[in-house]
Amino acid sequence: MSRMIGSVMKRVEMRQATRDHAWRANRLIRDDGTVAIEFAVVGLLFFTLLLGSIEMGRAMWMRNSVQFAAEEAARWALVQSAENSTAVVDFARGRLTSSPATANISAPYVTVSGIRYVEVTITQNFTPVTTLVPTGTITMTGRARMPVG
Description:
By secondary structure, the protein is of the alpha+beta class. It has one domain (32-147). Helices cover 56% and strands 19% of the residues. The chain has three helices and four strands, in the order αααββββ. The chain has helices at 2-29, 34-78, 85-95; strands at residues 104-106, 109-112, 115-126, 138-147. Strands 1, 2, 3 and 4 form a four-stranded antiparallel beta sheet that branches. The longest helix has 45 residues, at 34-78. It is rod-shaped.
């Protein structure tokens, strides 16, 4: 008798589990696209933040590259024996890592209070690849000044 009751109980449990499983499956099927709508909202926010952080990283990288090239060129002019602005500009252009052909570089030698300096100024335009927010062109500037004699 106990075997019979155990067998009946197992069948009842199996039917109940099957009904629960079918109810859950029907519930998932009956959502009628809510998952797609949720993904559209959350996905838009996620990809906006992702692309925005990539663009900010690119802008910071270009700004640091421009500043580093200006500092390197000013230090290089410090150890040169002759004052040659063209050579300093060429050296700075070689140190740029982000499109050196489009950079505006100047390296004049100036005298202030009897001390001779080289002032290296590099400007370069940054244009974002993604146009999530229309920013136009951003100008990155790097400056360095070193005494040369």
